Amino acid sequence: MKKNSIYKLFILLLPLLIYSSCSEFLDINKDPRYPAVAGTPLLFSSGVTWSASRLGRDAQLVGSLWIQHYAQNNAANQYKPMDSYSVATNSTEPTAIWQSMYSGALPDFRIAIAQAEVNGEWNYWLPSKVMMAFDFHILASFFETIPFSEALLGEGNMAPKYDDGPSVDAGIIKLLDEAIAKKADAAAMASIGTKDFVFGGSVDNWVKFAKTLKLKILMRSFDANKSAIQALLTENDLLTTADARMTGFVDEVNKSNPLYESDRRALNTTQNIRLSATLVEFLNNYKDPRVAIFGENVTKNTDGTDAPANTYRGLDQGSADAFTQAMFPSTAHSRARLAANDPVYFLSVAECYFLKAEAYARLGDAANAKTNYDSGVKAAFTRWSLDGSPFVAAGGAYEFQSTNQDAMLKSILTQKWIASARCQAWDAFFDQCRTGIPALGSQTVNLYSTGQVVKDKNPAYVLGTLAPSIYSVLPAGDFPRRFLYVKTSSDYNPNAPKADVNPLSKKMWWHK
Question: What is the pLDDT of residue 323?
Fold first, then answer.
């Protein structure tokens, strides 16, 4: 991959992504910043960069907080609204995702597809279709009812209608099927090589990506799609050999991983993101070495004494206040580990294996479920140059539990939750909403008592369950399930649903 190409695009787009005004977003189908004659290669590369920039920053951040990989440092406030679920229609992260997709990535892919079709550039047409489908998938997963059928009709379409969730998913699958059908035409052309930041021009991998994303969407309504799911499993042409990810980031200004760039370089503090107590307790309990990949060791215990080497401690969700600062000073809880060169993942090999394992479990095929589960766990360890074989071996900490379907699903989805840390947290959030795993708990990891310092673990907390955010603005027992419709759309599009139609905790059609 030619890194200079990535860097030039990222440097060009980052200021636009961060500082673009609301007025530029009023028409999601027209972006005056782009020349009408931009070439297909540039449009495709630009679209991928737009997609990665917000997926790797905003979706990853929110997913990490809501699936309890990360918590807001209790001595700072940058992400406190997201950690306590105080999300508004103009909140930064939802607005950035909506705006970057509808004003950046999707128009780029639309024009790239149109130009490629006219010119017979099927080697660009196919991956542009797949990325368009993926971006709509992300939007539908966060917002459910979104502009789809009329979203990209061109100039003058100021008020596209909002399509319901099942219609959007059906439309996404149609896009994927269209892309898959063009494999032979795309493969017959010269490789696009370094202009492809994801697979380096491999048409075969783009088709595998499309089929795996199709499987993922079909799993949202398993019984209705059982035959199509079985067909994909039987064909077995899925993404098990290469991650769909954007790499090439380095530790230089405007050239690093988007979340690292935003959190560690652009802010006035680098201490905001800490490991969640939910994740740390689980990893510590099973002596999982990935805790050192996900977070930094602490130097102090909660009583101020020096901590032993390789001590990792997390914060409960929503604990950013003076009281918890006294209980847990910053030196006593682990800062999340981020790297400038962390890739941005769209879909991973580990995720593919876990999807297959879940499908086989739901089909009652325990043997194939175990085979793919073991491969998924090992792939998740291999990502960090670790060996997961002992964990899935007989008697290992993560040995597959095949007593019944519920036991199989708990094994698979729990490990998928861990595997998504520092790479695909948004996907774990979608999975929790879809499957109910990890389970939603009612107890915090640590004991809290107003007015006094209590530093003991909470004996009522159930390991591996999501804990309530201490200062959640939602009613007791409620957790976030979606984003609110963004103000930049609802203020100017009369077809936009009212803000109170789908509150933060309302389940989508495919949620458990």
Answer: 64
CA angle 498–163–178, rounded 5-degree value: 155
Long-range contacts of 364-368 (CB under 8 A, 24+ apart): 364/405, 366/402, 366/408
Q: Is residue 438 reached through a cis peptide bond, with omega within 30 degrees of 0 on the bond before it?
A: yes
Please state, as a whole number, how many other Cβ atoms lie within 10 Å of the Cβ of residue 454: 11
Residue 504 sits at φ, ψ, to 5 deg, of -55, -35
Close Cβ partners of 270 (under 8 Å, ≥ 6 residues apart): 263, 264, 335
> How many degrees, rounded to 5, is the angle at CA 447 between CA 443 and CA 453?
155
CB neighbours of 312 closer than 8 A, spacing ≥ 6? 275, 280, 283, 284, 291, 292, 295, 297, 298, 334
- Nearest in space to 423 (alpha carbons), one of 353, 338, 483, 480: 338
Distances (CA, A) of 440 to 21, 314, 443: 38, 18, 9
User: Per the structure block, which two tokens stand in for 48?
Assistant: 């991928």
Residue 289: which residues within 8 A CB-CB, separation 6 or more?
386
- Residue closest to 46 by CA, chosen among 57, 30, 34: 34
Look up residue 310 and give its amino acid.
N
- Summarize pLDDT for 75-86 with one digit per residue, the tens: 888 999 999 999
Which pLDDT score is estimated for 125? 98
Q: What is the pLDDT of residues 182-199, one digit of tens each?
A: 999 999 999 999 999 999
Query: How many angstroms separate the first and last alpha carbons of the chain?
Result: 41
Q: CA separation (Å) from 133 to 6, 153, 407? A: 22, 16, 33
Nearest to 95 by CA among 59, 148, 49: 59
Could you give the CA distance from residue 461 to residue 508 in angstroms, rounded to a whole number? Answer: 28
Q: At what angle do helices 40-54 and 92-100 cross, to 10 degrees?
A: 170
Run of H or E including 344: strand 344-347
Residue 397 gets which letter from DSSP? T
Phi, psi angle pair for 185, to nearest 5°:
-65, -40
| pTM of structure | 0.92
pLDDT of amino acid 322? 59
Report the candidate in 366, 389, 398, 355 with the shortest Cα–Cα distance to residue 220: 355
375 bridge partner residues: none
- The residue ranges of the chain whose pLDDT is under 50 are 1-34
Q: Is the dihedral of CA 485, 486, 491, 494 positive or negative?
A: negative
Domains (range + CATH), the chain: 3-238+343-439+481-490 (1.25.40.390)
